[in-house]
Design brief:
898 residues; 6 domains; 51 strands; Jelly Rolls; six-stranded mixed beta sheet; twelve-stranded mixed beta sheet; single chain; Leucine-rich repeat, LRR (right-handed beta-alpha superhelix)
């Protein structure tokens, strides 16, 4: 009887709140066409047709998802604008704002979208679609800053922005309150139900607040890995008292995992991390312990600091079994990879237990446009009876409205208003004087009437266009005292009275025709000033033209003299071809970049007549040399000379000569004599990365895990410079371990990019050259015969897998199998959570597994089938740096980890 009475009391406490919550739920089917009730949750859904007038509804084909709300999506144009849904809120009340994205139609071959998602002006996340069949869920917990919030999509990198659903869920009382909510929203990174009975997520009606609790059985790639031996799943049908701060659902607390051997370990990826976070653990003792049995354990997570010392005793903390205890970590710094463990204490008879976790990232709330400026745009909006304004969201951020320009201040201020020809009627609003940063005002071609308002506070104003309106009255004197005004046009209005004399000065471009009754002061005097000024200007121009002609004649004579004195040197040294991409080559030097011409006789002497061959690359044979000054060099002789070889060689030398980066092998000089075309590079003492990975065990031992990470970071930085640091960008087109060279300090430099392709299409002299190496070649190349920056990313992903595994990209040898491929082999094991099976045996026992996981994950992203799903080199560098930090932390003395 007591048990049923307890359940009844809990129902009375929760049910009225839950029923009230449901009536306030907002569930929007984006792209939908009618109202309906979801049969699974019982929640009412509405279409977005009355909320969004932009974009178009698209049908979604996905046999894996049967929910009605995922049968359509709303697609938006790729036009640089932002598209916002406005949700009504109660100021200072807490809400869950949730968006979902299901792309579907995976077989169309279209580029997968990547775009940005904003809540008001706060960057929420970058939505990147890797899997067309997956529902991507983005959730933010907020305390509403006003009576509405905007959810905005914009800034597509690839594909078109789209959205499947938008949901608003009010929370109760002080749920999810933090000390930082005035400055930060909470982006939900993970909410996991441990010991779940099925792989499906749990939500409303089991959770009256409709939070989504992911099952720990979900098979999403690397969702949860690293399960300790002895981990078992348990559940109960007894009620669990969840009347604590966050009110997790009873069904979540009725399941758990336990570490029967004294240890629970898990590893979880956190999107948009590293960051400061709020983390919650949920514990409820759902096993009946004996009188002498105890369950005590501690948390082990290096980033949690002093929290690791706290002993968890569920029954004691929760005041009994079947009651909830929820310790919180309100502000901890977490990396992308969260590896945590619960270890039983020495005096405990039972192993650790875990029911659920919830982790959220603190997202700093961005400033909105200054409130004074908002009063102006609101006033202008209110003047239009027709739909001449199509603006959504904040005027300035994340993308400014079409007719507004803003500065980069925080909060941003409006610097330009351009409403030419919008047909707006009424008086110019007096609030305009609030725009203290305004430099340009374009209100021409409308039906503005009445007198000009006070704009004397607009001291930054430079350009004003008011022509072709119906304005009346005198011109205010302040117009003549605005300190920065340089242009004023008031033509075709009905202004009257005398023009302020300052407006007729030479420094202001002033147009005032067709204003009956408007007259100036001392007009003849002003005309004289204009004539005098024009005369002086013409005289100055004539003087400048004369001086320019004399200087040009002098340069022509000097150039002719140089060409006569330079009676040898071949096609390269006398080239007069100009290019915006690189310097002109003359007189034995690249004029701006300084790569030296080296005589063939000097190279023959340096290489002992090319007797010390050290390799052979795509360019040709490579020889060791030592110049007269002692500098060691690698001398590459071009193997084949085609009909257009002269021009190609000129272009390649000019291209290489403008590339300078510590992680690219530098060009020392060049030679072009006696039908020989030669490039001279800095000599790299430790050879190629391939030599060290796949050669003898002595060289392999030089490559511990930290050294491999350093080499990977160096090479990634070199490629990133080619892609983003050069203008135009350069595609290497043959990234592989043998083209990554190591200096005497084992620092890596990328080589053999002499025949790389610039991103601009006009450089066709090399774009048609077949490039790439089997095992490293982008699979998209076989379909479209085009190599892009993302092709370099694919190849570099293969290099990362080589660094992890020590294996070659492909091997026809017996040891791996006839069709063995490193990408297919590694992908199948990593997706099973088994990264240890791909690790180079020589590394075993000398690395931190989380560090290897970080690199393995980004390597897997690099070798995605489609280029749009692969990361940029900058993202790869960040992943490698994360892995390096994890590995270095392992090597620090123990006292630094306490």
């Amino acid at each position: 009887m007591g048990f049923f009475y307890q359940v009844f009391l809990i129902f009375l406490a929760v049910a009225p709140s839950a029923l009230c919550q449901v009536t306030e739920f907002v569930s929007i089917d984006c792209g939908g066409s009618s109202n309906y009730t979801d049969p699974t949750t019982g929640l009412a859904w509405i279409p977005d047709t009355g909320l969004m007038s932009y974009g178009q509804s698209s049908k979604v084909q996905n046999p894996n998802v049967s929910s009605v709300q995922y049968s359509t999506r709303r697609d938006f144009p790729i036009d640089g604008q932002k598209y916002c849904y406005t949700l009504r809120t109660e100021e200072r009340r807490r809400y869950i704002v949730r968006t979902t994205f299901l792309y579907g139609n995976p077989d169309t071959g279209a580029t997968f979208p990547q775009f940005e998602l904003y809540l008001d002006t706060t960057k929420w996340t970058t939505v990147t679609i890797f899997d067309a069949a997956r529902v991507y869920v983005k959730e933010m917990i907020i305390r509403a800053p006003s009576e509405s919030v905007d959810v905005c999509l914009c800034c597509a990198t690839t594909g078109a922005p789209f959205i499947s659903t938008l949901e608003l869920r009010p929370l109760n009382l002080s749920m999810y309150a933090t000390n930082f909510e005035d400055k930060f929203f909470l982006e939900v990174a993970a909410r996991v139900n441990f010991g779940a009975l099925t792989p499906e997520a749990l939500r409303y009606p089991d959770d009256p607040y409709d939070r989504i609790w992911d099952s720990d059985l979900e098979k999403r790639q690397n969702f949860l890995v690293g399960v300790a031996s002895g981990t078992e799943r348990i559940n109960t049908s007894q009620n669990v008292d969840v009347s604590t701060r966050e009110y997790p659902p009873v069904k979540v607390m009725q399941t758990a995992v336990v570490g029967t051997k004294g240890l629970l370990t898990y590893r979880l990826n956190l999107e948009d991390f590293p960051s400061n976070a709020r983390a919650y653990a949920y514990f409820a003792e759902i096993e009946d312990l004996g009188p002498n049995e105890t369950r005590k354990f501690t948390l082990t997570e290096p980033d949690f600091g002093d929290y690791n010392n706290a002993v968890v005793n569920i029954v004691e903390n929760a005041n009994g079994s079947y009651r909830l205890y929820e310790p919180s970590y309100m502000n901890v710094s977490l990396a992308f990879i969260l590896s945590f463990a619960f270890q039983k204490t020495s005096d405990s008879t039972r192993g650790p237990l875990l029911n659920a976790i919830e982790i959220s990232r603190y997202a700093q709330i961005a400033s909105r446009t200054d409130v004074l400026d908002l009063t102006v745009v609101d006033a202008l909006h209110s003047m239009s009876s027709e739909n001449v304004f199509t603006d959504q969201g904040d005027p300035c951020l994340p993308v400014a409205w079409e007719w507004v320009t803003c500065n980069s201040m925080m909060p941003p201020r409006i610097t330009k208003i351009c409403l030419s020809g919008r047909g707006i009627k009424g008086m110019i609003p007096s609030e305009l004087n609030n725009l203290v940063q305004l430099t340009e005002l374009w209100l021409d071609g409308n039906s503005f009437s009445g007198k000009l308002p006070d704009m004397s506070g607009l001291t930054s104003l430079q350009i004003v266009h008011l022509e072709n309106n119906q304005l009346t009255g005198p011109l205010p004197p302040y117009l003549g005292t605005l300190p920065n005004l340089i242009e004023l046009n008031i033509e075709n209005n009905s202004f009257t009275g005398e023009i302020p004399p300052q407006l007729l000065s030479a420094k202001i471009k002033f147009k005032y025709g067709n204003n009956i009754g408007l007259h100036g002061h001392s007009r003849k005097k002003m005309q004289f000033r204009w004539i005098l000024g024009a005369s002086i200007g013409v005289f100055a121009v004539l003087i400048l033209l004369l001086l320019g002609s004399l200087l040009l004649l002098h340069n022509l004579r000097r150039r002719k003299s140089r060409q006569k004195s330079n009676d040898k040197g071949g096609s390269l040294r006398t080239s007069t071809k100009t290019s915006a991409a690189y310097s002109i080559v003359r007189d034995g030097h690249l004029r701006e970049e300084g790569s030296h011409y080296i005589a063939l006789s000097d190279l023959e002497s340096a290489t002992d007549r090319f007797s010390k061959k050290i390799g052979k690359g795509s360019f040709g044979s490579v020889y060791y040399g030592r110049m007269k000054d002692g500098k060691e060099v690698a001398v590459k002789i071009m193997a084949e000379i085609s009909n257009d070889g002269d021009q190609q060689f000129v272009t390649e030398v000019a291209l290489l000569s403008r590339i300078h980066h510590r992680n690219l092998v530098p060009l020392v000089g060049y030679c072009e004599e006696e039908h020989q075309r030669i490039l001279v590079y800095e000599y790299m003492h430790n050879g190629t990365l391939r030599d060290h990975i796949h050669a003898d065990s002595v060289k392999q031992k030089e490559l511990d895990w930290l050294t491999r990470l350093s080499i990977a970071e160096d090479a990634a930085k070199g490629l990133d410079y080619l892609h983003t640091g050069c203008n135009p960008g350069i595609i290497h087109r043959d990234v592989k371990a043998s083209n990554i060279l190591l200096d005497m300090h084992m620092r890596a430099k990328v080589s053999d990019f002499g025949l790389s392709r610039q991103a601009e299409e006009d450089l066709t002299h090399v774009s048609s050259v077949a490039r790439g190496t089997v095992g490293y070649l982008d699979p998209e190349y076989y379909g479209n015969q085009q190599l892009t920056e993302k092709s370099d990313v694919y190849s570099f992903g293969v290099v990362l897998l080589e660094l992890i595994s020590g294996r070659k990209p492909v091997s026809p040898e017996e040891d791996y199998g006839s069709d063995w491929n490193i990408v297919h082999w590694a992908r199948s094991l990593i997706r099973k959570g088994d990264v240890m099976s791909i690790v180079d045996p020589i590394l075993i026992g000398s690395f931190k597994i989380e560090s290897v996981w970080r690199v393995a994950e980004v390597a897997l992203q690099c070798v995605e089938q489609y280029g749009v799903s692969r990361p940029r080199m900058q993202e790869i560098i960040l992943a490698i740096q994360d892995a390096t930090k994890i590995e270095k932390r392992r090597r620090e003395p123990p006292e630094k980890l306490s």
